Amino acid sequence: MPDRPRIVVLGGGFGGVGAIKKLGDADADVLLVDQHDYHTFQPLLYQVATDLLEPPTVGHPLRDLFHDQANVKVKQATVTGIDLDERRVSFVEMKPVSYDYLVLGLGATVNFFGVAGAPKYAFPMYTLPDAVRLKEHVLERWTAADRDPDLIDDGALNVVIVGAGATGVESAGALAELYRQNLNKDYPDVPQDKARIVVVEAGDAVLPMFKKGLQTYAAKALEKRTVEIMLGEVVESIEPTRVRLKSGTVLNAHTLIWGAGLQANPLVSGLGLELQHGNRIAVGPDLTVPGHPEVYGVGDIAWITDTKTKQVLPQLGSVALQSGEHVGATIARRVAGKSTKPFAYKDKGTMAAIGRHAAVVQMLGGKTMKGRKAQFAWRSVHLALLPTNEDRAKAVVDWVGSELTHQRVGRITVDVDE
Ligand SMILES: Cc1cc2nc3c(=O)[nH]c(=O)nc-3n(C[C@H](O)[C@H](O)[C@H](O)COP(=O)(O)OP(=O)(O)OC[C@H]3O[C@@H](n4cnc5c(N)ncnc54)[C@H](O)[C@@H]3O)c2cc1C
């Protein structure tokens, strides 16, 4: 069918997958390209890093998601450039591809804000390899300290988490539960009270995007889990075993988790477009890129202004999924010669899970929840975002198992090089 339009979707995250799911009936050829052969469920990466979930729950094979969509092909390749005027995309591993419609769903990446040593020594949390690397590093440090107690005073078990946004708070809470409920029993010779988990935040509160009451609740919930919170402190440099703060304080820590900032995929800087805060592309109400009605931006790469509230939507899974679905449906309508509508976001709330029975939820309208009720809402929203029922079942089994027994399934290290 050489005359069918070709729709190229770059990125198989929430945005890209959401778009393709709505293109099943389109009389068009759809090509999805991602550098990985799996869809990454970023919101649960910290649960892989802290042994609560196993990697396959958080990474689903992309090809498997589209078996029932005959018009979809999936290629694993790394995008190197996008020529919007020539309507062509280039890759490392395969020949360039041209398109009639393009969906940009390449997401965001870590922003180290130029902090010395961060690219080399910090552990970011954006990809599945990031999460597995962190999990294995933490287990390796406990095992090393178990063999050589001198390492404990040197900070082998201490973890500094930079940033008290949702990523930092969720990682700190989960790590504290792993330390105090599991690793303390796994390593009875290690004095676990000497293992510190410290959150360093430049601002004056944890969860700065939440209301005051939820901030206070989250800080108390973290402290109850033995997490130390340092507010108004900025990380100056990171070495393998030390973290230096601008105030002059030096923290002994062999692990630093970076949860402090993100920026849109660096490929956007080659598009010749005006970019907004965080290098995001300001898309129109229909999610098209300015000057290119055949190109759409979805998810974290896009600066989407809500048509109702006029607020810029946050970089969240539900925003990415809904914007992707809207673009898929819009392109399907355009291919069929039908009219289209502007994007309207249905708020699912901004949320953070601090630990067992502790979470916070805030809706765009201002309504809030905390505690068990919020944890239930958090789980419902995240289960809905998982791509298949099989993934949902796996997550529920692991969550319920840990709820009943405090067990964490992933506390092993597999060395593929041995
Ligand atoms: C640690 C963490 C916790 C989070 N927690 C929550 C939460 O609790 N709730 C919530 O709603 N949201 C959460 N988010 C945000 C949410 O995960 C993102 O908003 C969402 O994943 C964005 O979807 P996306 O499709 O735009 O991009 P992504 O999901 O990032 O997908 C982008 C895709 O593009 C691919 N890609 C990138 N560069 C290239 C390239 N050069 N070539 C080929 N492919 C490429 C990537 O492999 C990836 O598959 C969290 C994010 C992180 C990092």
Written overview of the protein:
The chain has 12 helices and 26 strands. The protein has helices spanning 14-21, 45-49, 55-58, 62-65, 118-121, 128-147, 150-153, 166-186, 212-224, 317-335, 372-385, 389-405; strands at residues 6-10, 29-34, 38-40, 59-61, 72-76, 79-83, 88-91, 97-98, 101-104, 108-110, 159-162, 197-201, 227-231, 235-238, 242-245, 250-252, 255-258, 262-264, 275-276, 280-282, 288-289, 292-297, 302-303, 350-355, 358-362, 368-370. The N and C termini lie far apart (50 Å). α1 packs parallel to α10. A hairpin with a 3-residue loop joins β19 and β20. The chain has a 6-stranded mixed sheet, with helices on one face. It is an alpha/beta fold. Bound molecules: flavin-adenine dinucleotide.
What is the topological layout?
Layout: E1 6-10, H1 14-21, E2 29-34, E3 38-40, H2 45-49, H3 55-58, E4 59-61, H4 62-65, E5 72-76, E6 79-83, E7 88-91, E8 97-98, E9 101-104, E10 108-110, H5 118-121, H6 128-147, H7 150-153, E11 159-162, H8 166-186, E12 197-201, H9 212-224, E13 227-231, E14 235-238, E15 242-245, E16 250-252, E17 255-258, E18 262-264, E19 275-276, E20 280-282, E21 288-289, E22 292-297, E23 302-303, H10 317-335, E24 350-355, E25 358-362, E26 368-370, H11 372-385, H12 389-405
Parallel strand pairs: 1-2, 1-9, 2-5, 9-22, 11-12, 11-17, 12-13, 20-23
Antiparallel strand pairs: 3-4, 6-7, 7-8, 10-18, 14-15, 15-16, 19-20, 21-22, 24-25, 25-26
Helix pairs in contact: 1-10
This protein binds flavin-adenine dinucleotide.
The site of flavin-adenine dinucleotide has 34 residues, from α1, β2, α2, α8 and α10.
